[in-house]
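#structure-requests
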Amino acid sequence: MANVCPYGRFTHAVVRGIPETFGKVAGDGRENGENSVDLAKAQRQFGVLTGALRQKVGLQLIEIPPDPELPESWRLEDVAVIQGDTALITRPFKQQRRSEAEAIRRVMSELNLTVVEMGAEEGGSGGATLEGSDVLFTGREFFVGISSHTNHRGAEVLADTFRDFAVSTVPVCGGARLKNICSMGGPDTVIISDSDGAKKTLRMMEQLTDHHYEVLTVPEESAANCIYIKGPSKLDYLLHRPAEECPDSISAFQKLQDYTLLPTACSEASKLGASLSSLCLLINRKYTYF
């Protein structure tokens, strides 16, 4: 039987600035796909996100400076999975992205978290790959999406790291990563896209768990990734895509009673396959160690 921890209670948010090389592919400097991105707009949207986390939710914000040599390092969710006092430094699929972990590792150590490494060598961890955007933690258990970025060996390393919780693997049937199609909207609520692939993934998740989760379905896939936080003030906050980006999903979010809804734009990061949660790591620490 898996342990249960209060889901959504965080004290700190770690973010990393948007570099001038935003939109390039790590390792070769090419533009990422055919979508053109607006650097200034991405930086403004990042500022709105960090402002919401710090000023509205009340989290302590730790901002790592941008690094133009690491064009995808702003997607820091991929580089660590944090639960309780433990931070698992992951092993992204792209070799060029693995050096992004250095700054994350330093912050985790400064926060007195126990840092677990997946293994830097090709032979270490058996060629495991794991990215945090494929990991959904519900407060009761982990679901790991098997995708082009995360493999079964990576899921096994996560299970070995967080032994107090059940870990189940599900194929990502829609979207590039698991958290592109679903996220937590509260302690027992899963927000999920209305796409056929997402519904198939959800059915598999329901077959693998003993717990009943409420499901909030949104018609737009990009609306399925939200950030739920029970802030220091004990209020329930939900950062979600705004009406300008996901007009058909706003009515679904309004069904969440007694929530403080915080519309947060993410259009530029979304063009690169990222979501709101890609831009931050959330941590619950009772004390500040700086």
